[in-house]
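task queued by scheduler; priority normal; single chain, no ligands, no partner chains; default sampling; output format set to structure tokens
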Amino acid sequence: MNNELDVMELTGLLARDGEADPAAIPDARKELMMTIQQEDQRAPSARIVPYLIYDDPARAIDWLVRVFAFAEREEGRMLDDGGVIQHAELELDGAVVMMGPPSVHGDSPSRGVSAMLDVTVDDVDTHYRRARRAGAEIAIDLEDAPWGMRRYQARDLEGHQWQFSQPIAHPIGGV
């Protein structure tokens, strides 16, 4: 295959039946799929991605992984010259959260700045039990909310409030 072909040319080769050397199509398809997979791994899974400020991002990552079952996206970690985390990305069931230390972008909620994050999970009951066992500060116990979500809320080690939820079949008072 010609190495000078870019992704758009590869897409065109695959789209136009009969215009390309049939022997080149499997290689083009393979290269296109590899490119798509690489892009999928780098791109956040949502158009709106929360960015949280932590005084100690490394400690926050450890806590969020242990307590809420997040996984760090290693390719999203950026360190300064001193080895201190300046940016990191965590993922849970396709939901991405970015984080970093206090900067011009914001301050830690320990000084009064915060927001609540809502993360949809596949099994909120199991998630709740894990967080409770790991010592999360539960702000709202597991419940079925009237708007059709089973949810709970907890605070993380620096005070960010998290809501974990999953849709329920029949909301309270629903049919």
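post-processing summary
- The radius of gyration is 22 Å.
- The CA atoms of residues 10 and 30 lie 10 Å apart.
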